[in-house]
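Sequence, please.
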């Protein structure tokens, strides 16, 4: 179902052709820290892209709805150019600022190291209030600013600082709002909401131990950012203890600043030891009980595999509700998981659900909380739906997100006896937050981003979205190509007339697990792809096997081989597009660019399929897959010591001698996710094989590159490299 390009919004061919605007115009933009009073100065798209942090500034996020549905908390910057996030309250049909960090003296000062690491794992680049927690009634919130702990009520009172024993990280309110927990120097503390009685509940036994903080694998690969949970009565906490002493030492140096000592990382590379995790019940009366977690899965029920490790090394989730504390643990080989009820007195555990998979276990967000509430999605959920997440429940109605078409995600409601109904109508990517009879629907469609408040199913207002509109208007044509009906987006220059000329082709796909780029949504990469199209390219983005949205079997196709099916799908889609548009796409000039897994794909494309791809830009590419972390990489390729052939086949370093096409490698030199060693080992192998290539190091940049002067310049350099390499 391709879009009608004429309906995608007004633009001028002159603006699109240059990728810039030459006039000034009123927008919803802002200055560095507040709304603009006039018009924006002329600037090109790359600079706007950097200054708006990929058009994310000004977007509301992290919604929390009170159980009575009356109050909605969320974070948002003051506008499309403000980098300081404030805490807001939507109530009685209107919104107001609860916390303006600038009024509290926050001027972007340094945050504690543990908080910096937490933000890097969450890909958080802003400043100000970037996280918060509330009591059960959502009448009080706590947050940290540059290590200082603050508390604010929703009744209009001013934020109050709370004294702490040291820089505070990840504060959490007790359900009744009378106590606050926080972590400092690895110790889990609690303080009363009136600022008295600060005391530690758990102190680390050594420098490699923390209580209440997520280790690298839990935050980066599992997605568990939280590591402590209050009892409903506020009498105790369930906390994760992480001991990283078994994990290998890595060192990350800033070569541009030789006066600085290298930063030491605890990075659990594939096949090496993980952090040792345990759960503890910490009572306010000083008592402490270690949870008796199962050591390993039952060999009689644990699925067999080429590599088997039934030890329960991963804590996937935890929590504490009216029925008591609970957790889900997963084996090292990821084929078995147990949901556990925890006895709050003895620490004993009871297995409530045993889950197994022949490849790897997948966990539906929100499913455990739903099951413990006594509800279920039900057997009447249509089989064609790929359920993405359980959002919550209001009475007997369960809300969830699901896709019946891979390019769209909708909010659904399931009520016993009434079946399932779709709540959102417009094609797009939708999600929601639930509280009482209030539903906050966050919708990103091809026409923009809106947040709508529904009360009892009726409109109850909107939360303002203050993001800037890109200087280019994306007009993707959505296609289903080849025998696998690969979802593909095609972007053409706005001045291009069908059949007038053959355009060089540029593929920009992520194509890896967990991310889709072919979505009917107003996301930043649509604008970037359109900008590349305005530079004279026909841009293709392709979601193949291994990406979300098309069911578990589709995602698991890459088990044991993350390269062959992924690259084959890119080739098949490119060839199908060339066949469909023979007078518009040039098969002799095909480039590819990408970042992270997309960078890996781009480099692999010119190594293994130079017959199709003629130049590549590979950013933050994990070229030696044995250097990536345990949980993420062992999920797909197994243990490198047992199944080395999987790593040899999929890694790029050993295939460096195959390079015959122009290749630009880009790397953030402070990246602690895909560390610079990937770039350096691959470049060394290319040199040893006599294969010319280009390298662009980015000093002071991590895995997420958004800095002005870097993100914008990088786009321009990529265009120049691709044009020269493809003879444009």
């Amino acid at each position: 179902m391709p879009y009608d390009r004429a309906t995608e919004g007004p633009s001028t061919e002159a603006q699109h052709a240059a990728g810039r605007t030459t006039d000034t115009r009123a927008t919803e933009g802002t200055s560095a820290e507040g709304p603009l009073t006039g018009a924006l100065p002329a600037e090109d798209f790359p600079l706007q892209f950097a200054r708006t942090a990929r058009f994310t500034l000004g977007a509301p996020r992290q919604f929390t709805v009170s159980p009575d549905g009356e109050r909605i908390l969320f974070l948002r910057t003051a506008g499309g150019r403000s980098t300081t996030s404030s805490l807001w309250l939507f109530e009685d049909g209107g919104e107001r600022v609860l916390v303006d960090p600038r009024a509290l003296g926050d001027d972007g000062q340094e945050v504690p190291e543990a908080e910096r690491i937490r933000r890097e794992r969450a890909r958080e680049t802003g400043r100000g209030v970037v996280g918060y927690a509330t009591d059960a009634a959502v009448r009080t919130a706590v947050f940290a600013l540059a290590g200082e702990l603050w508390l604010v009520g929703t009744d209009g009172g001013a934020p109050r600082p709370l004294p702490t024993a040291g820089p505070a990280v990840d504060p959490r309110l007790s359900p009744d709002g009378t106590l606050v927990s926080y972590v400092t120097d690895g110790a889990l503390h609690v303080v009363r909401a009136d600022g008295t009685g600060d005391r530690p509940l758990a102190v680390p036994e050594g420098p490699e131990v923390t209580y209440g903080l997520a280790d690298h694998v839990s935050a980066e690969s599992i997605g568990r950012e939280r590591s402590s949970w209050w009892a409903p009565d506020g009498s105790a906490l369930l906390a994760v203890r992480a001991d990283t002493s078994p994990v290998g030492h890595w060192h990350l140096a800033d070569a541009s600043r030789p006066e600085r000592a290298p930063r030491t990382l605890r990075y659990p590379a594939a096949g090496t030891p993980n952090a040792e995790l345990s759960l503890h019940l910490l009572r306010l009366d000083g008592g402490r009980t270690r949870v008796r977690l199962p050591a390993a899965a039952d060999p009689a029920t644990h699925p067999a595999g080429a590599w088997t490790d039934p030890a329960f090394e991963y804590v996937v989730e935890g929590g504490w509700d009216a029925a008591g504390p609970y957790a889900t643990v997963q084996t090292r080989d990821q084929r078995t998981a147990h949901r556990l009820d925890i006895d709050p007195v003895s620490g004993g555990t009871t297995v409530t659900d045993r889950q197994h998979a022949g490849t790897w276990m997948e966990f539906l967000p929100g499913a455990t909380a739903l099951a413990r509430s006594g509800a279920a999605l039900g057997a009447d959920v249509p089989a064609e739906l790929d359920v993405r997440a359980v959002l919550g429940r209001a009475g007997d109605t369960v809300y969830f997100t699901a896709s019946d078409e891979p390019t769209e995600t909708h909010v659904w409601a399931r009520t016993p006896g009434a079946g399932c109904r779709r709540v959102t109508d417009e094609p797009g990517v939708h999600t929601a937050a639930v509280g009482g009879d209030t539903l906050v629907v966050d919708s990103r469609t091809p026409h923009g981003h809106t947040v709508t408040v529904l009360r009892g199913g009726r409109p109850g207002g909107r939360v303002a979205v203050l993001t800037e509109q890109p200087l280019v208007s994306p007009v993707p044509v959505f296609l289903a190509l080849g025998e696998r009906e690969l979802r593909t987006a095609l972007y053409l220059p706005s001045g291009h007339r069908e059949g007038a000329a053959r355009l060089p082709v540029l593929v920009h796909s992520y194509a890896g697990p967990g991310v889709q780029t072919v979505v009917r949504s107003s996301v930043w990469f649509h604008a970037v792809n359109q900008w590349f199209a305005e530079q004279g390219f026909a841009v293709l983005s392709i979601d193949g096997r291994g990406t979300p949205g098309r069911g578990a079997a589709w995602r698991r196709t890459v088990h044991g081989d993350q390269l062959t099916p992924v690259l084959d799908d890119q080739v098949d889609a490119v060839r199908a597009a060339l066949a469909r548009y023979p007078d518009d796409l040039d098969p002799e000039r095909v480039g590819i660019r990408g970042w992270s897994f997309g960078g890996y794909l781009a480099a692999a494309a010119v190594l293994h399929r130079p017959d199709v791809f003629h130049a590549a830009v590979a950013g933050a590419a994990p070229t030696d897959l044995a250097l990536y972390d345990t949980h993420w990489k062992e999920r797909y390729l197994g243990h490198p010591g047992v199944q080395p052939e999987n790593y040899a086949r999929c890694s790029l370093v050993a295939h460096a001698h195959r390079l015959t096409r122009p290749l630009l490698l880009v790397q953030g030199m402070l990246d602690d996710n895909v560390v610079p060693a990937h770039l350096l080992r691959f470049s060394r192998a290319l040199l040893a094989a006599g294969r010319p290539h280009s390298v662009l190091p980015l000093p002071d940049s991590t895995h997420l590159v958004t800095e002005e002067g870097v993100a914008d310049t990088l786009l321009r350099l990529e265009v120049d490299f691709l044009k020269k390499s493809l003879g444009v």
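The radius of gyration is 26 Å.
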